[in-house]
Amino acid sequence: MPETLPASLRFLKGLVTVLTAVMILGVLTIVALLVIRLNAGSAPLLVAPGNFTLPDGVGAVGISVIDGFSVIVGDDGVIRVYDSETFAPVQEFRIGP
Question: Is residue 8 classed as helix, strand or coil in its secondary structure?
Fold first, then answer.
């Protein structure tokens, strides 16, 4: 005849079973969200630095694409913002004095 567990151990067994189920559902949810998020991304916007017109004698130190704008940092201390589709200058910021 099987022995019955004390009430406290039955309660603990139930808690462990519930915790296991919650952890499995959590891991499955995280995996599903990662798959959805990584597959929903749009195609990367590729921008070649040579498409932008910088003033004569100015070289590009860095380039970044942010929300449809290309930001180019010149070696003359000016940050230039261009539209990534039309390559037209939008704004300039001078760094330092």
Answer: helix
The pTM (predicted TM-score) of the whole model is 0.52
Mean pLDDT of 46-51: 72
pLDDT in tens, 16-48: 999 999 999 999 999 999 999 888 776 666 667
* CA 65-70-74 angle, 5° bins: 115
User: What pLDDT band is residue 52 in, cutting at 50, 70 and 90?
Assistant: confident
Beta strand segments in the chain, E = 60-66, 69-74, 78-83, 89-94
Q: What is the side-by-side order of every strand in the sheet holding 78-83?
A: 60-66, 69-74, 78-83, 89-94
Q: Are strands 60-66 and 89-94 parallel, antiparallel or unpaired?
A: unpaired
d(CA 34, CA 22): 18
Q: How many CA atoms lie within 13 A of 29 on its CB side?
A: 6
